[in-house]
């Protein structure tokens, strides 16, 4: 559990671990240079299964890697300090891996909580163990960081998390782990992602999109056989096509600064249809001009 200024959330997240029906666990909580009382809160816990560590602020990937280095269990899971698990998460996820000795990872359903407008329906992902699994997983992150249980040896063999990534670090790890060995689905909602709007990594949409693309390019560079199997056209669809979709999502939500960054990255790669370019080209103009053009387009439609 990487923790940064997390005192408001720790009672719920740590509480969801303490409530697990499987009692044989250790919680390695890594304080990543917090400026509030996070470390003191962790050190005040009396359950010996909670093991606090502390490091200078180095980012979420470095914190997870520090926890991984200290882990003693055969299986590992990663729970952010502001998210929670169902009480039977560990029990059911471990049972799934024990039933499939060939599988390296189990994943489950999840629910987003705290979204406005009544959004956040529970979601159970499909079975990804299909002949096209590698391409499906490459296209996008299929489960959140805390909706998986992984064999520790597989994570170590994949060199853990990339400290250069502040977003998509979990996606990059899943690619290295889940595309090379079987994975197993637990078709229940056992993980909960809590939106609270306070500097969450998911809130920087441009960085999330561009680092997802960065992780994709890194994977292709280090897996030439996979790249050759996909082919040039499909690679562009799964990489730049996905990046463009994220740009449009920001555009329609009127997160124009994020959309402009993403559109410029797509245009530099020469991707998109003529219609796409009519939306993207104004990203090279001053933002105030861009907003004026959007208003003009809206008035004429």
List the helices and strands and how they pair.
Layout: E1 2-3, H1 10-18, E2 27-32, H2 38-43, E3 50-55, H3 60-70, E4 75-76, E5 84-85, H4 89-99, E6 105-113, H5 133-139, E7 148-151, H6 152-157, H7 169-178, E8 183-194, H8 205-222, H9 224-230, H10 232-252, H11 256-268, H12 274-280, H13 287-299
Parallel strand pairs: 1-2, 2-3, 6-8
Antiparallel strand pairs: 4-7, 5-8, 6-7
Summarize the structure in words.
This protein is an alpha/beta fold. It has 2 domains: 200 residues, Spore Coat Polysaccharide Biosynthesis Protein SpsA, Chain A (Alpha-Beta Complex), CATH 3.90.550; 96 residues, no CATH class. It is 46% helix and 14% strand. It is built from 13 helices and 8 strands. The chain has a 5-stranded mixed beta sheet with strand order 4-7-6-8-5. The protein has a 3-stranded parallel beta sheet with strand order 1-2-3. Helix 2 links the parallel strand 2 and strand 3. Helix 7 runs parallel beside helix 8 and helix 10 runs antiparallel to helix 11. The radius of gyration is 21 Å and the shape is globular. The termini are far apart. The model has no long low-confidence stretch (mean pLDDT 94).
End-to-end Cα distance: 48 Å
- Strand percent estimate: 5-15%
* Overall number of strands: 8
The chain-level mean pLDDT equals 94
Number of helices: 13
Could you describe the largest sheet, including whether it forms a barrel? 5 strands, mixed
CATH architecture name of the largest domain: Alpha-Beta Complex
The total domain count is 2
Shape: globular
Strand order of the largest sheet: 4-7-6-8-5
